[in-house]
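FW: tagging you since you asked about this chain on Friday. Here's the raw sequence from the shared folder, copied in full. Didn't touch anything.
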Amino acid sequence: MSEDSKTVKAWTRIGSEMIADCRVLKVQQTRSISPLTQKEHAFYVFDTVDWVNVLPITTQDEVVFVKQYRHGSDALSLEIPGGMVDEGELPIVAAARECLEESGFKASGLTSLGVLNPNPAIFNNYLHTYLATGVTQVGSIQNTATEETVVELIPVSDLQELLVSGAIDHALVAATLWRYLYFRQG
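HL: got it, structure written out here
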């Protein structure tokens, strides 16, 4: 039997301990048993709520982007609106809320572009992606004390070049945009 034809088996989790509570995520140390060796190993998992991304497109076929500084990359980032799903909130409701808060544009008639696993090696949450067409500006950006954002309207026809050039390098935003471009072709 070749290596490729073997069946991968799930590990058995036998315990979990919270190591740190960092407000937007918790760090857990988990212990699991290998199905191959039956030995115990420790792993670290980031426990966080689900996230949403919404791709808002105006009637002029422009994407509503949000440009903001990101502390992790220590750089400005061109992104679509997105954020955390609040406790008890449906992801589609969170997507509309985040779009309005971050851009001032109202997203109604949201369509799912699917659900992604941000990084299954260390995260236990999901990213829910949505498309909103015909969005309209109904208000101003509602930044918190730790945010400073500006809206940039960019033609849909520029998306592929922005992705290929690396001008958009946020992996979860890129995944949402590539998914949209794929479905748009079909």
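FW: DSSP finds three helices and eleven strands in the chain.
HL: agreed, and The chain has two domains: 7-47, 51-185.
FW: great, closing this out.
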